[in-house]
Design brief:
The structure holds 2 protein chains of 2 kinds. Chain A is 49% helix and 20% strand. Chain A is built from 6 helices and 7 strands, in the order αβαβαβαβαβββα. A 6-stranded mixed β-sheet of chain A has the order 1-4-3-2-6-7, sandwiched between helices. The longest helix of chain A has 31 residues. Chain B is globular, with a radius of gyration of 22 Å. Chain B starts with a helix and ends in a 5-residue tail after the last strand. Classes of the chains: A alpha/beta, B alpha+beta. The interface between A and B is medium-sized, with 34 and 33 residues. Strand 7 of chain A pairs parallel with strand 1 of chain B, so a sheet runs across the interface.
Chain lengths: 176, 211
């Protein structure tokens, strides 16, 4: 009995300490979820979100409201997200490359209008494009849309072009 | 003991498999096109004034600042004034700007030839703004986004690619630029010095073509 209590206590402590360490980056995604609050981040912040070691498959899509092929592929992405959302090992993240000053006038209205239930970050790091684009993928020329797949901080796939629903699902099912 | 051996060998096998898998990272984005040092093709494209333009028309040029750009893209628009300034500064020094719209107007109607003529007039372009009709030139260069710059240097009647990339490091604010990549590259060429940064990447609009 005593042992059991000890084990339980250890579990609780471990659990809460685990939460503590993750609290900072997680706080971002919690505010984003469901209410379409777009968190404006630098690349370092974004890295800590998409390259987490939590055994989840991260599907990270770089887009912008003004980018036609991006906007065209988003309905497919949203369908796929709906399908896998409840899977604890799946996480889709949209990274908007709109201007930070247009978050309220362009990005949020777009998300609301299209009823997009997904975590959205706005990457406001224009002066370091030459560094972070290459950090995401050496082959990325900077054209969007682009989608990158990570698990536990390791890149699994990268695609620089528009993707339809089937293509996206094919990659997801391969790694999920 | 045998069990442990079995477990160990499975772990090793799994580790090997994981590594093999890691090496196979999917990447469908291989870029064709020019690398630094390649000789770039000349072209014969229609300018907004309806005259045809080729690089070979520029007998006295030392090279070119070839910029794939367009009407509709916010990044391209953000750089219009800076492209005009580049031509103003470097055309007299032998490196004129040659702008080329690579987009298919069937996909992006704003990038039609008439749209180009309007934009060139509105902005007072002092350089040729050419239409890559049939989208034949940009794939040879390997342009993938707008704006996308290729600096060429004339050498033994060839046009050698010396720089590929962005204009500077801040599309959003011309007053907050720390690295003027194109200016630095042309300045280096003019001074017969090696270019410090021969290629850069930046976010841009993907080139719109009917594939």
């Amino acid at each position: 009995m005593r042992n059991l209590i000890l084990i339980l206590l250890t579990m609780v402590t471990l659990n809460s300490s685990g939460q503590n360490t993750e609290n900072k980056p997680l706080a971002l995604s919690n505010t984003v979820r469901h209410n379409n609050v777009v968190k404006i981040v630098r690349f370092n912040d974004l890295e800590s979100v998409i390259e987490k070691s939590d055994n989840k498959l991260y599907v990270v899509n770089f887009w912008a409201t003004w980018c036609k092929p991006c906007v065209m592929e988003l309905p497919g992405f949203m369908e796929v997200n709906k399908k896998y959302q409840s899977n604890p090992h799946f996480k889709m993240i949209l990274v908007s490359l709109d201007l930070a000053k247009e978050v309220g006038t362009e990005v949020q209205p777009f998300l609301k209008k299209n009823k997009m239930d997904v975590d959205v970050y706005l990457l406001d790091d224009n002066k370091h494009m030459n560094e972070w684009i290459q950090a995401v993928d050496k082959s990325w020329s900077g054209a969007i849309p682009a989608t990158v797949f990570y698990r536990n901080g390791k890149k699994l796939a990268f695609k620089e072009s528009k993707m339809d629903k089937n293509e996206l699902e094919k990659i997801i099912s391969k790694y999920l | 003991m045998r069990k442990i051996g079995l477990i160990l060998s499975s772990i090793i096998l799994l580790a090997i498999l994981a590594q093999v898998n890691a090496k196979k990272m999917e990447n469908t984005s291989e870029h064709k096109g020019y690398k630094i040092g390649d000789a770039a093709t000349d072209f014969h494209l229609k300018n907004v004034d309806n005259k045809m333009v080729s690089l070979s028309d520029y007998k006295n040029a030392k090279g070119f600042i070839v910029i794939f750009t367009c009407n509709h893209c916010p990044y391209a628009k953000a750089y219009e004034n800076r492209i005009i300034a580049l031509n103003h500064k470097y055309a007299p020094k032998g490196y004129p700007v040659i702008a080329i719209n690579p987009n298919d107007p069937k996909i992006e109607p704003q990038d039609s030839f008439v749209g180009m003529q309007q934009r060139a007039k509105e902005k007072g372009f002092t350089f040729p703004y050419l239409f890559d009709e049939g989208q034949k030139i940009y794939p040879q260069y390997g342009a993938v986004r707008t704006p996308h710059v290729f600096i060429l240097q004339k050498e033994n009647s060839k046009n050698i690619v010396r720089y590929i990339g962005a204009i500077d490091d801040n599309y959003a604010d011309a007053n907050d630029v720390s690295h003027k990549y194109v200016e630095a590259a042309v300045d280096a060429l003019l001074a017969n010095k090696p270019i410090a940064q021969t290629s850069t990447v930046a976010i841009g609009c993907s080139i719109k073509a009917d594939k």
